[in-house]
Design a protein that fits this description.
3-stranded antiparallel β-sheet
Length: 580
């Protein structure tokens, strides 16, 4: 069907004599590249422009290509700030007729390298495979639109249009612009289009499927932040819990502020990881340091092991204080309002929470939740990024909080969970759509994307400290119900035991899910499992495991090398064994 679309599109262009002059085959690609900056681009909207187009010779590992930078919708915002959507496009001279949109991350505001991150800790990039690649800043600039007194890099949240562009609107504009440039440069549309991202990029992938379902054939939406405002409330909840613990233990910085990173040492987090392994490691049939029985490691299993770690006297390196255990279990249970109702969701217990594993220290979990061990001031991302995002991007109206540790700690201390929750659903005259309705992209209705023939893969770390895998699995189950038990026909989730946010952690965190997506889209080969490898820095470099499509989990066959994926099968719930 997609090949037919390509043939029809190119045939119509040929019949109508509409092939852009810049794409004539007798013109050198270098000349066609330079012409993009000055020539008329068919299909390019009037408020879109090319600012520069530079031809680059091949320089391993990158191929010869045309690098285009441009802007869309230049304007002055309601907050008096200058805004525009900037895009970055690379067009390989030897094109494979495929388009790759590279998702952003965090608060965006960065143009991106447009190389085509394949995710899964892959060293190769899409541009090297012959893809045309685009990235974008989602409609604001972290340097130009940085007002320290209004949240710094998240201060664009004071302008409604900038919020909307960040949420999803810029994605459609950049896609249309990039495809117009592809048609001009190559003489026809892409045969296949892919969107790939993680974190905010994962949210963007979900937003693409929801708002622009016909634009992409394959979407990889890893660790999707499709519940961004609620996840920001979870970050506030976590910060408040760790603040109380640090203050109770009298752990302060030089300015007298509670020091979150001092609430748990790496050794303390290692004790918690050890308790998780004692409770759950063998559930997959092998004690191997990886909890592959995703979803089976419950609080009911882990709590008794944690209770055994409680100090009987003064705190020491071999035990945890009662306050530490209370705060940790409060965080893992997820945020609640004053009525005790869940605001977001709870978190999965996994060995990737942290600790020194001998071959390396995994700090992704603590870097987000509490900050760098031994840092003299609060630097946790929940504070420094989440602390600005909630009041400026996700509250209506926004709240002025300076982008400094002192101001952010003061905000977290004084913030009321009920009021903050209400703020993400509130509308005003300046913000006619709530932050939740703008930012959320977790609809269980993906019927339009499915009708288009789209395929989606979601890979996420079980130990993700930013967006809970439980939220992702809740979404997939709702999707499956809406599709009468057939969601796996077009969307599959692959949990990664041990992995933190998008990468890293004590697990097999290196994997090529993009090739699996491409084979699904182009060859109809639906992936049951994806082979993953433990990289350097883990206790088992070179170890392989299958990542299984949920709800199946990897189980040891009872014989064979524990370091080999061949010794494990993806087993569906309630079944003793199933070939992967």
């Amino acid at each position: 069907m997609r090949m037919r679309r390509w043939m029809i599109a190119t045939s119509v262009m040929g019949l109508c004599g509409a092939m852009p002059a810049l794409a004539q085959k007798d013109a050198a690609p270098q000349a066609r590249c330079t012409a993009l900056a000055s020539g008329a681009i068919a299909g390019l909207a009037g408020d879109a422009a090319v600012d520069s187009a530079v031809a680059h010779p091949a320089a391993a590992p990158l191929p010869a290509h045309c690098e285009v930078i441009g802007h869309i919708a230049r304007r002055t915002g309601s907050d008096g700030q200058p805004y525009e959507i900037r895009y970055h496009l690379r067009l390989p001279f030897d094109w494979n007729r495929r388009f790759f949109f590279q998702g952003g991350g965090g608060s965006d505001g960065v143009l991106g390298d447009a190389l085509g991150n394949l995710q899964g800790e892959q060293s190769e990039v899409a541009l090297s495979r012959g893809f045309a690649v685009v990235s974008q800043d989602s409609g604001h600039d972290n340097t130009r639109n940085d007002r320290p007194e209004h949240g710094g890099p998240t201060s664009f949240g004071w302008d409604y249009t900038a919020r909307r562009n960040y949420a999803f609107a810029s994605l459609g504009r950049v896609t249309a612009t990039a495809k117009a440039l592809l048609a001009t440069f190559y003489g026809g549309p892409p045969q296949y289009s892919y969107f790939v991202g993680c974190s905010k990029g994962g949210q963007e992938g979900m937003a693409m499927a929801e708002h622009f379902p016909d634009d992409f054939d394959g979407i990889m939406a890893n660790a999707p932040g499709f519940s961004l405002p609620r996840a920001a409330l979870a970050q506030l909840w976590d910060t408040k819990a760790f603040l109380r613990l640090a203050q109770s233990d009298k752990r302060f910085d030089a300015n007298g502020l509670p020091l979150l990173n001092a609430s748990f040492s790496n050794a303390d987090l290692g004790l918690i990881s050890g308790a998780v392994l004692k409770a759950c490691d063998a559930l997959d049939g092998a004690r191997d340091g990886i909890v592959s029985a995703v979803g089976q490691c419950t609080t009911a299993r882990v709590h008794p092991e944690l209770a055994r770690l409680t100090c009987s006297g003064a705190k020491n390196a071999s035990c945890l204080s009662g306050g530490q255990l209370e705060a940790f279990e409060q965080v893992m249970g997820g945020p609640k309002n004053s009525q005790g109702h869940a605001i977001y969701t709870d978190w999965m217990w996994d060995a990737g929470i942290g600790g020194d594993w001998g071959s390396g220290t995994f700090t992704g979990w603590r870097a987000w939740k509490i900050g760098t061990a031994g840092a003299a001031a609060n630097d946790g991302r929940n504070v420094m990024l989440g602390g600005t995002a909630l009041p400026t991007m996700f509250q209506s109206p926004p709240v002025a909080v300076a982008n400094t540790p002192a101001a952010l700690i003061a905000y977290a201390r004084g913030a009321d969970m009920d009021a903050a929750q209400a703020g993400i659903y509130r509308t005003t005259s300046d913000f006619p759509v709530s932050a939740w309705d703008l930012m959320a992209a977790r609809s269980a209705d993906r019927s339009a994307f499915q009708r288009h023939g789209g395929r989606m893969i979601v890979a996420q770390g079980v130990a993700d400290p930013v967006f809970s895998l439980n939220d992702t699995l809740d979404w997939w189950r709702a999707l499956d119900r809406a599709d009468h038990g057939h969601a796996a026909d077009f969307a599959r989730v692959f949990p990664v035991p041990g992995m933190n946010h998008c990468r890293g952690g004590p697990g097999t965190t290196s994997f090529d899910a993009f090739t699996a997506l491409q084979n699904w889209v182009e060859k109809g080969q639906a992936p049951q499992s994806i082979r993953a490898t433990a990289p350097k820095g883990t206790p088992w470099p070179g170890r392989t495991r299958p990542l299984c499509a949920y709800p199946a989990t990897a189980r040891y066959d009872g014989h064979g090398d524990l370091g080999s994926a061949a010794s494990f099968s993806c087993v569906a719930p309630g079944k003793k064994g199933q070939a992967s």
